Each structure stands twice: as structure tokens, then as C-alpha cells.
Amino acid sequence: MRVIRGLHNLKAAHRGCVATIGNFDGVHRGHQAILQQCREHAARWNVPLTVVVFEPQPREFFAGDQAPPRLTRLREKVRLLRDFGAEQVLVLPFNEVLRSLTGREFIDQVLIDGLGVKHLVVGDDFRFGCDRLGDFALLAEVGLTQGFGVEHTRTFTVDDERVSSTRVRTLLASGNFSAAARLLGRPYSLDGRVVRDQQLGRTIGVPTANLPLLPQPLTLRGVFAVIVELENGRRYPAVANVGFRPTVGSKRPTLEVHLLDFSGDLYGQHMTVFPCTRLRGEVKFDGLEALKAQIERDQARARQYFAAPPGDQGSSEQDSSLPLASAPLEREAAVSMTTVSKTTVSKTTASKTISSDSSSADDADATNG
Question: Which residues are CB-contacts of 67 (< 8 A; sequence separation ≥ 6)?
């Protein structure tokens, strides 16, 4: 799979493809249906499937901090696109130069001169270009004269409602992780590499693994019971804080995780965190002792959550405030810390490599992904 950073990195080998364009934030089941639609045409033409994405996303460019929070960083988005059949990802920097292109200039520079598209799949409400003239009708008109086909995406619904990134964000914000997983086609997760931080947790007997987050609006914020998956595939119950840690005055968002009944060095390890239920919001405490007391209460509630029979989380007489919901994970794997087997998709894609003319997927979001 190739990651191409900018039009200037396009080469002759990248031309001739079936393409689709969009943010693909979350790569949810609606996106997966689009990719399947594109794969059918790519197989027919015997050409690669290319996904065109923007970085930053257009709404982030225009709205800044007021833009909706991301579901996936660029690195994770690229990996998911690869898993669902994309062979090339063209990452276009969304800047003043790109923003100022007219609809026809975008078609000429990106689709015709750049990618040499054979077939294009986009939403029938897709709009582009500074003149607001870029739409499905213009694409179809130009396609007729330039020899490429244009077709609209098929609507994908769950519970008679269209699957969208906005709908997933709403479910996550409400703590309904099981419903969000149905739309995503997988449990929602956060991931990163554990770094050294202030190590205040150790001073109060609660060592934490800290994963820095990008300085962007947060999809989640607060304290959660979570499942942590380590590099070796083992999963552990844990408590996580997502946010700015107001008691210690952090200026950068952090994912801070305390693994229950675990001892070991996690520095430098890649960790995936699956939120299961929200325990509370972030609170600024008067001092570390008050924070420690609250952490102990958080741990007790998390243990109660994980000890409850499947389906009964949040319905116990002891604490009915815990909401029903959990990412669909194997409870036995979490509690007994057994090795988790990978899915068929993971097995088939693990051997695939990602190459790029300017960056790999692992550093694709080093700046603003």
C-alpha cells in the first residue's frame, strides 16, 4: 500500500485507478461499504483503488478548535483504509492553495492530470471548489468528455438510519460504546506509545501509563473503565483518564491509564485502549490526597463493572449509576489476561507493508493527523 503526500509526489506508477474522495473519519461501516463498491470497479478495471483524503480535514481548516473531534488519527485511518482494500492513499494538504482551486481546477489537477482516474465513486451531495460549482453533476459532465465514469455512493444504514461519523461521535459522547461499535464495525479505541511524564501517579501509589494525544478537540473526556491491549496481545482491565488532568495543570491532552493488578515496565510500548463505560467527568481536586481518594473510588467502581456478569454491568444494586454498555470484548480474556487471538482480517493484513513517497503510515500524523 502506498501513502502519497501531496500532488507533487504523484508518479506515473500511481496513475490509472478507481478513486473515491472524502474525510473517511472513523472508517465506519458506511465508509467500508464505499470501499467495497470501489473494489468491485477496481477489480473490473484491474487497477488500484485510491482513496483521496485531506489533511487537515476541511472543517478543521475553517473552524479550528470548533471543528468536530476526530474519530481516527491519520495514521490509524491509513491502516484501516488498507485493511478494507485501499492500495493507494493520496493525502492532500488542505491549505490556501487547495482551498482556492475552482471545481474544474480540482478535477483537472487532482483527478485527470494527477491520478488519471478510470472511475470515481463519490456521494451525490459531494461539493468542492472555491466557486462552490464542484458537484456530482460537474464530475459526471467532465467524466463524459474525459473518459472516466462517475457514480454515487450507496447509502448504508443501521436501524434505518444512515451511518455517519457524526452519529458515531454522538454515541461515543453519550457513553454508548456498544452502539458505536455497531456503526464502526469494531470497538472504538485509542492508542499510542507510552512515554515518561511527571510520574506523579507513582508518588500516590497509582502508577499510570501516559499516552500523549494530539492537540485537537477530544472525542472523549473524563474517567473510564477500559480494556488495555499490550503489544504481546494480552488484555487487562484498567481505569483511564482522558483529558487535561486539571489537578496537576496539564496543558496538553493526555490518555492516562492505570492497569488493575499489573506490575511491569510499559515505557515505550504501544498500547491500545478500549473504553467500556464512563465513570465520571474530569474534576479539579484540592490536592493529591483528594485525588488519590477519588482514584481509589474509581478503581472500586471499575472492578465492580468488570466483575459483573456480561449484560449486567451498571444494573447491580450496589451501583446502578454505571451505564449499560461495553465495547464487545471477551470478558474472560480481560479478566484472566489470556492472549487474545487476532481476527482473520488482522491475519491477512499483517504481512502487508506500507510504503510512501514521503512518509510511512507510522509517522503519517506526526504533525497534524
Answer: 57, 59, 60, 217
The length of the chain, given as a count of residues: 369
Give the H or E element holding residue 201.
Answer: helix 200-203
3-state secondary structure of 212: strand
Task: Please tell me the distance from the alpha carbon of residue 98 to that of residue 172, in angstroms, as a whole number.
Answer: 32
Question: Cα 84 from chain centroid?
Answer: 14
**Distance spanning both ends of the chain, measured CA to CA:** 19
Taking a C-beta distance cutoff of 8 angstroms, is the pair 301, 260 a contact?
A: no
Let me know: does 41 contact 47? Beta carbons within 8 Å: no
Q: Dihedral of the CA atoms 277, 84, 135, 129 (nearest 10)?
A: 80
Burial class (CB in 10 A: 0-12, 13-18, 19+), 136: middle
- Per residue in 276-332, pLDDT tens? 999 998 877 777 788 888 889 999 999 999 998 665 554 333 333 333 344 434 443
Q: Are 26 and 71 contacting, i.e. CB atoms less than 8 angstroms apart? A: yes
Cβ partners under 8 Å of residue 250, min gap 6: 244
Q: How is residue 139 written as a grid cell?
A: 464530475
- H helices of the chain, in order, are 29-45, 58-63, 74-83, 96-99, 103-106, 136-146, 165-173, 177-184, 200-203, 288-307, 331-336, 344-350
DSSP state of 175: T
At 158-178, the pLDDT tens digits run: 999 999 999 999 999 999 999
Rounded average pLDDT over 113-117: 97
H or E stretch covering 254 = strand 254-259
